[in-house]
Amino acid sequence: MAIISPDPSMQDLKITFQESTLVFPSQQTQKKSLFLSNIDQFLNFNVQTAHFFKANPHFPPEIAAKRLKMALEKVLVPYDFMAGRLNWNHHLDRFKIDCNAAGAGFVVASSEFSLDELGDLFRPNLGFRQLAVEKLRNLDDDKQPLCVFQVTAFKCGGFAIGVSLNHMLFDGLAAIMFQQNLASLAFDDVDNKPLALIPCHDRRLLAARSPPLVTFQHPEFLKLDRRPFLSPPPVSDDSEEQLDFRLLKLSSRDLNFLKMKANEAAAEDGKSTTTAIKATTFNVAAALVWRCRALSAHDFDHNKDRVSTILYVVDLRSRLNPPLPAGYSGNALLVAYASAKCEDIEKWPFRKMVEMISQGVTRISDEYVKSVTDFLEINKGMIPRGDCIVSSWLRLGYDQVEFPWGKPVCCTPVVNKLERIFWIFPDVDSDGVNVLVQRPAAEMETFQFHFHNFFAHNNI
């Protein structure tokens, strides 16, 4: 295991912007409003990713940028809502997207560095925020696009495609499907080429029932005061407290050790049990993150009654009856949860936390999803309630999307102000995983201590 800090010398990638413009659908699209589900409603924040490509002599950055722009114009026809604008329906008290062909953002830039000079591309890098700008210059806030695509050339001939998406547009699986379609359309100049995957844009498939019927308790959500239209992201840290960023690297050996700890015999009432639990890579990595977060927070307030709650993202597509279409393009996700006192977390065997996370997933049934959707319909303005939100990229496959210039050599989330979110994503150079940690500077030191201490205490 290792903890990787940002490289302070790489906070400025010496970027020059050549183009910052709007891209419009290549054909006329119908003006309409896109219904957003109650799950979409609380995801009003941007997610930025960076996808790096090695130099390809047949596709220098300027040619790749032209191909990508052309493909974007074409894909905005079937994905017309991506060229729309977020709006507030005062009558229904909810967000909608006006599909008005106002355009997506497109930026072309260059850096004075080569890819090799950036070092480990998985390393948390504050400079990568320059590779996925959230807003276009010279546009007022109310005219900003919901998505911006950026091609940044490096002096070696390699380049990065940065993407900034409002989460209301897509969840991870829908974003991958969109990227596969975008990549497919970039291969040639055929105007009517079919999409690689057919998306389903009907978000009413996750609409609330009429009348709503709440059949479960939902402590994973918190009621906020009424938020103004287009308010700041509800899961971001609204304070000005400085954040530190670290990358936790868990090797295959580390993961096997965590799985062994999760499945080792536990003493209960003097008896031994060897019942195996679902010690997946995600479950053990999430349990370790939760433990470190809970103990580092507890170190600050020493409140014996402090409760720590982990939230973790669960895909709903196959959990509903009937299942959602495979091509569902909205947010088909919910947060499962587990809660415990910090003092208990400190004393418990690791197995206990993995077991709680595993059990939280089984709670997400068809009826539970319907209950959540109806609960959010009744209680507008809710946000996820938890001090540790874990999102997994382990099965998304960003690195497998093939463009004309090849597959990316690295795909990584870009550091941001979403301080409660921990991103788990694969390490393409090994069988291990990476965890991007974003914590207030005052807490990061104790978080790192508990991470190292867990392995040291268990002699690994």
TrEMBL record:
Highest taxon, organism lineage: Eukaryota
Gene3D superfamilies: Chloramphenicol acetyltransferase-like domain
Bilayer-crossing regions: none
GO MF assignments: acyltransferase activity, transferring groups other than amino-acyl groups
Database matches in PANTHER family: ACYLTRANSFERASE GLAUCE, TRICHOTHECENE 3-O-ACETYLTRANSFERASE
Family from the record: Belongs to the plant acyltransferase family.
The name this protein goes by in its record: Omega-hydroxypalmitate O-feruloyl transferase
Classification of source organism: Eukaryota, Viridiplantae, Streptophyta, Embryophyta, Tracheophyta
